[in-house]
Amino acid sequence: MALASVEVLPVDGRPSEPDGFREFVEARSSALLRSGWLLTGDWPSAEDLVQSALAAAWPRWATLTRQDAPELYVRKIMVNTFLRWRRRRWNGEIATGRLPDMQAYGDAFAQIDARQALIAALDRLPPRQRAVVVLRYFADQTEAQTADALGCSVGAVKAHASKALARLRDAPGLAELMTGGVAS
Amino acid sequence: MNTEERQLAEMLHRVTPEPPRRVTVEDVAYRLASEPPREPRSRRGSVWNSAFRGGRGWMPALAALSVFAIAGASAGIAAVTTSHHTRTGAPSDGTPPATVTVSGSPSPPAPAQSPPPTGETLRVAGGMWDAKLINRDLFSQGSLTGSGDSLYAVESGSLVRIDAASGAILQTTPYSPPVFTRPVVAGNTVWVVWSYGGSGIVLRGYDARTLAQVASVPVPASGGVSSLAQGVLAAGPDGQLYVAAGDTVATVDPATRQVTHRTGLTAGQASSVAVSPDGSKLYVGVGSFQLLVYDLPAGTQVSSSRMPVGSAGNLVATAGGVWGTTGIGMSQWVWFAPGGDLSRSFRVSQGAGGGFSSVPVYSGGVVWIGGTHELVCASPATGQALARTPIPADHSVVEYFASPTVLSNGHAYALYQDQRAQLAGVASLTPPQACLG
């Protein structure tokens, strides 16, 4: 069979694609995946998270776009899906092997070490603190938006953020990362 | 925000890498059509989940994989004997939990994670090609390769060396693939893509016996790496390594561990590379989807052809042309392009519907194509199937064989899983003589 006719097969039973959904996915999937990576620590889980959130947003897309807040909704689903996943499984801390050498700034290995130091630091946080860090400091959401996403008060967000910062302060290598310069 | 919060925010944006690929609407559509949201294949989850994590990471475009993962899948190694001697390996009783470190520094290779298998041989897949399990460890789809008496595969967070005779894991070293590409064995070194994103790539080499790290080679990626990358590392017959590196293909000399040459592409970013067995041709996949053919000694492009598909890659070169995959999930197919001309290409086997299980492998003188539907061996010269056998379902739930790899001892091995039974292991098969190369 000649390949000129090869196309991705349609999926039976899938709802029609809502207007603007494709443009949103193309424009924002990278940022959403990066948030997912910060939440989960690896790309496969990040993709699961983003796909799950986008799948949940798909049937509600028209309403979300009318409310002009599709990304907030998608991120809300992401963090709550992440929290649900974390509740369902063992949630102990992960032993870190050798600590990254933070002296080798400027080369490719330093980039890798920096990323792993970051994930190791985030792994020290309880899930809700981690979610607050990602929403507040990576997704640049306000405290009110973060509280809405997590279904808690603004005060609780502040408390989570404060505790998270305290824990991150003690994370090996993170202080150097926050004041150093390893490009991604 | 106070100063510390601003520093944290700045650092998060600076350090968080770009994803190796982006989620597409098609990914989401397959997710919607297949299942509700579920547990991730976490690096900290069960071994069943771990097995899928690797596969998803390497080929997340295969959203339909989730259809098969829902039951909680198992993966392992199936051994294929190319002689008619039935080996007597057997599964171990338990599967050790996957382990992960988050350190980026080179770590010494770890001892075996699983004891040599003992006990009775377990027939699998209804005895298809006399399939028998000899091991029940869990590996990422499509990650199997081998050399000498050893197999190499990737499981959650680790590259492992497996004793082909017993199925036991002998060494492990931390490794999480950033993009789908099989480890490449060149001489006494196993090469993997350690980092693939942003503006840089890092290859790492491990001693083939001990898995001690022996090399790290940073490879600049001109123009950034392709978001469609799959199958980005290949070795030539002289052992030189070829890496899809943005809008170039970098040649790495494993002896000097230096980039010795860069082939500039005329059409976008390289997503997949392959080198012909005689070293005369370099095949490069670009975008969705164009195949560029280069005269490797001369360094000049000799042809270009296109295929009207959304994604393709996982190129494998043989004497007669180039092979690859196209489509996603259930619509995935394996094709063969004689002479590297996509206008003459044809389908060889229906795809996996289960991720990377159908990625073609050139091993033992024939091209092997696994999957969830059938196991095929095909002629490297003509692309025609030499033999094929259907892979049975387990009470309507698929089983798969993936990345068959033939070793010099006359045996071939493939990843195997039965999702319903959560059963995996090293099995021996006895394929027909037509597959013996």
What does this entry show, briefly?
The complex is a heterodimer of chains A (184) and B (437). Chain A is mostly helical.
3D structure, described in words:
The complex is a heterodimer of chains A (184) and B (437). With 184 residues, chain A is an all-alpha fold. Chain A contains nine helices and no strands. In chain A, helix 1 (21-40) crosses helix 2 (43-57), helix 1 packs parallel to helix 4 (70-88) and helix 7 (143-150) crosses helix 8 (154-169). Chain A is globular. The model of chain A is unreliable at 1-14 and 89-109 (pLDDT under 50). Chain B has helices at 3-15, 25-34, 47-58, 65-69, and strands spanning 76-81, 122-123, 132-133, 145-147, 150-155, 158-163, 169-174, 184-186, 189-197, 200-207, 213-220, 233-235, 241-245, 248-253, 258-264, 270-275, 281-286, 290-295, 300-306, 312-318, 321-326, 333-338, 346-350, 361-363, 366-369, 374-378, 385-390, 399-406, 411-418. Chain B is globular. Helices cover 9% and strands 37% of the residues of chain B. Chain B has a four-stranded antiparallel sheet with strand order 4-5-6-7. Chain B folds into two domains: 3-116, no CATH class; 130-435, YVTN repeat-like/Quinoprotein amine dehydrogenase (Methylamine Dehydrogenase, Chain H, 7 Propeller). Chain B has 437 residues and is mainly beta. Mean pLDDT of chain B is 76; it is low at 36-75, 80-108 and 110-119. The chains are: A mainly alpha (184), B mainly beta (437). Chains A and B meet through helix 1, helix 2, helix 4, helix 5 and helix 6 of A and helix 1, helix 2, helix 3 and strand 10 of B.
User: H/E element string of chain A?
Assistant: HHHHHHHHH
Low-confidence stretches of chain A: 1-14, 89-109
Termini separation of chain B comes to 67 Å
Number of DSSP helical runs of chain B: 4
CATH level-3 fold name of the largest domain in chain B: Methylamine Dehydrogenase, Chain H
Which strand-content bin applies to the residues of chain A?
A: under 5%
- Which quaternary structure do these chains form? heterodimer
User: Cα-atom Rg of chain B, whole angstroms?
Assistant: 20 Å
Query: How many E-type strands of chain B?
Result: 29
Instruction: Identify the CATH class of the largest domain in chain B.
Output: Mainly Beta
| Interface with most residues | A-B, 86 and 77 residues
Main sheet characteristics of chain A: none
Tally of contiguous helical segments of chain A: 9
* Percentage of residues in helical conformation of chain A: 55-70%
Question: What is the CATH architecture term of the largest domain in chain B?
Answer: 7 Propeller
* Rg result of chain A: 19 Å
Number of structural domains of chain B: 2
Strands of the widest sheet of chain B, in order across it, are 4-5-6-7
Q: Name the overall outline of chain B.
A: globular
